[in-house]
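Q: Could you fold this chain for me?
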Amino acid sequence: MNKIALIIQREYLTRVRKKSFIVMTLIGPILMAAMILAPVYLSEIASGKVTKVAILDETGWFFEKFKDQDKIDFYYVDGDLKTEKVKALANKDLLLYIPLPELNIPVNAQLFATDQPGLNVSAYIKSVMKNIVETKRLMAVGIDPKVIKKTKTDINLITIKVDETGNEQKSNTEVEIGLAYLAGFMIYFFIFMFGAQVMKGVSEEKSNRIVEVIISSVKPFQLMMGKIVGVALVGLTQFLLWIVLTFVFVGIFQSGIMGGDFASVMQAQQGQMAAAQNGSGINAAAFSQVSEVLGGIDFKVMIFSFLFYFLGGYLLYSSLFAAIGGAVDQQADTQQFMLPVSLPLIFAVISSSVVIQQPDSAFSVWMSMIPFTSPIIMMMRIPFGVPYWQIGVSLGLLVIGFVITTWLAAKVYRVGILMYGKKVSYAELWKWLWYKE
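A: Sure. Below is the predicted structure, expressed as structure tokens.
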């Protein structure tokens, strides 16, 4: 065990001291913080510009119907199209031209501009015109638009789960689907990323003949386990640093490093979003329902399961990746063995839509029990609610699967790590499994 601990220490310290590790550890949180803050920051840059829109309405339907909005000012003109277009474009204004229709209903309009108008401008214009035209049409056939408006109803469908003891818990399918996809794909990403690092490290040491010196002091199994655990600790370190640094960077930017008004702008943006949502029929009750749904999800189980399935799935696949790296002489030769090993993970991702639609089906349950697919499938099922005994059985089978695959991979690794100049085939690997020590 002391030798394995030394190899773990060597692998860990060697990798965390690399410039690539430091750069990626810093770039990752910066990119994630940028994804969160960039829309608000860009909105702050663009918020100072006021868009003026001249309206040339030949129909007369829309006179004084367009009200000034935030950063959008409307004014009416009554000249001919050619003259008003020249005036508006010379002033860098927009010109909304609503021609007199050949029939009775004006459904066409033209927006002249020197630059591409913002989406909020065109969306507001279409919304106003749509409401006016619909109102006129209803009044033309003797229907009061207010009556139609009163009949519009938003349906709130709340799913309530009832367990065997009769306890009820509200749930929201959209929220659970989002969490399921996020958890499953993060597991998939981390297993591949850090498993590939193990394979690359083994392959490089073998091609450089460094492994011959190392094997003289430790057993091949000890070397393989040390590399696997060492890289796993590097992965966990980087993952935790990403989370911490992302919140740190977001906090720094919000505190005013990028401008004293940044925090107030973000609050204003949130207020505008809330107002828009209230205007579209989404009120505080909807947010309360979402908060209640999130409160009903057992995040302690999710976090524990994520860490366990990440480590278990990584250890299972990294042992196979290490065996591949030790069996071949060059990294280019790893491709023929990567596909069979990766197929269960790829199949789990392909099956994700079926699992999310029917998380309690027999197919989903069995897929969440098989060690090669359980890290992804079970994490996609947990947000929908999974009995504890199923999680326990799945975790136990994953541990057993890891032990078996590591034992088999060690046999391949033990023979292949010191074999050079020979093209490895599947038949050759099968023979290596049965070599006696």
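A (continued): The longest helix spans residues 220-257.
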